[in-house]
Write a structure and sequence with these properties.
With 394 residues, this protein is α+β, with helices and mostly antiparallel strands. Helix content is 21%, strand content 42%. It folds into three domains: 133 residues, DNA Polymerase III, subunit A, domain 2 (DNA Polymerase III, Chain A, domain 2, Roll), CATH 3.10.150; 118 residues, DNA Polymerase III, subunit A, domain 2 (DNA Polymerase III, Chain A, domain 2), CATH 3.10.150.10; 116 residues, DNA Polymerase III, Chain A, domain 2. A hairpin with a 4-residue loop joins strand 8 and strand 9.
């Protein structure tokens, strides 16, 4: 038997050909609808920060596996991941600048399939019927790993009630606070209740949600931005699962997961500042109250939003501000008064925020103990929501 002589040059060529074949097998290639691609990019890009020191944090990780394409983004504090069905030709992964890819995809035809293919390791080729482009990316192995929260306290929330609670509570947090604990929303579970609270030390909101199943007792503080992002994810779906771990929390809605770190520290014991009694209780039309405060706030801006509320024994509430350089305002609205006359000064912007959080409620209940005690607001019926505003000096 004769052995075929293979020259060194031919051997090298064969090795290079085989290496290229293996390399191409590892490079991602998928066909996906424009709608699915764009929707997935929009969802995860919420976790991308524009102020990143690491370039890869401005990218979205795209990974094809099985019959799905997985997308993920993170700013190292919150992470969002999702997936959608696709025709996967080759499995692989790459990271691509979020803003460029999302903007480009939004300009493609809505009813066409898009081919995504990785070439040369870090270039994403995008092909459609009418266009072809290349976007420079970064290798997937440089993207931070995103850990799922597998164990901890698990909750099932009704999205409608959760979104209502976020609307009524999260605005009271102070996102850029020098005290990190005030830049979060307090979650406390006990039996069949979830208590959510937030404060910036000048105002406080608390909302209680009733759970279908009894759960473990636990508490944590979640960054307010993560809570707002969870609120967006909850739109258009009925249920949300929440898993609270030792130092992370995960919100999951219909295949999309948002993971966030928890804020370390002790949340203020706010129960101590909630007045246990009141001498004045007034039921006020929310719409009339809001219009009165809006008019007063035009002038109160010149006086650090200082606004006076005076409850009179003739069943009226006078809303006013002191004279400023641009003028003054005083308006009177009827109220249903129970108790003694009273007067207090509050920040007009804080009152407007509270009235906006009450949504479609026709009435608002306001309780006062004295001009140096917090004003307590709540709906006339139910004890699920309470809001406190600290008084200003008269």
């Amino acid at each position: 038997m004769e052995l075929e002589y293979i020259s060194p040059k031919k051997t090298v060529k064969n090795l290079l050909t085989f290496a290229a074949f293996v390399y191409n097998l590892s490079e991602m290639k998928v066909v996906i609808s424009q709608e699915s691609l764009l929707e997935s990019l929009k969802v995860v890009s919420r976790a991308v920060s524009g102020q990143n020191t690491l370039p890869v944090l401005g990218n979205i990780l795209i990974r094809s596996q099985g019959k799905k394409v997985y997308f993920a983004a993170t700013n190292l504090e919150i992470s969002i991941s999702t997936s959608c069905d696709a025709d996967v030709k080759n499995e692989g992964a790459i990271t691509v600048p979020a803003k460029i890819l999302t903007s480009y995809t939004s300009l493609l035809e809505k009813n066409e399939d898009i081919e995504l293919a990785v070439s040369a390791g870090t270039t994403l080729e995008i092909k459609s019927k009418s266009s072809k482009t290349k976007i420079k990316g970064i290798a997937a192995d440089e993207f931070p790993s995103i850990a799922r929260v597998e164990s901890g306290t698990k909750l099932e929330l009704d999205n409608k009630h959760f979104r209502s609670a976020v609307h009524q509570v999260a605005f009271a947090a102070q996102e850029n606070s020098s005290r990190p604990i005030l830049a979060g929303v307090y979650f406390k579970t006990e039996k069949k209740e979830l208590r959510m609270a937030a404060t910036d030390s000048y105002r406080l909101s608390e909302r209680v949600l009733h759970l279908e199943k009894e759960t473990d007792e636990t508490s944590c503080v979640i960054p307010v931005r993560a809570v707002f992002e969870a609120d967006r994810l909850a739109a258009g779906d009925e249920k949300m699962s929440v898993t609270i771990g030792d130092n992370q929390v995960m919100f999951a809605v219909n295949g999309t997961e948002l993971t966030s770190r928890l804020i370390e520290g002790q949340f203020p014991d706010y129960q101590q500042i909630i007045p246990k009694k009141s001498v004045t209780t007034a039921e006020i039309s929310r719409e009339a109250f809001e219009l009165a405060v809006r008019r007063v706030s035009i002038f109160a801006k010149e006086n650090n939003q200082h606004m006076k509320l005076e409850f009179l024994n003739d069943g009226t509430l006078t809303v006013s501000t002191d004279a400023t350089e641009i003028g003054e305002e005083k308006t009177t609205i009827p109220v249903k008064l129970d108790g003694t006359t009273n007067i207090i000064a509050l920040n007009s912007d804080y009152v407007l925020d509270l009235l906006g959080a009450l949504g479609n409620d026709e009435k608002v209940l306001m309780k006062l103990e004295g001009k140096m005690n917090p004003a307590v607001f709540s709906p006339p019926k139910g004890k699920e929501f309470i809001h406190l505003i600290m008084p200003l000096k008269m």
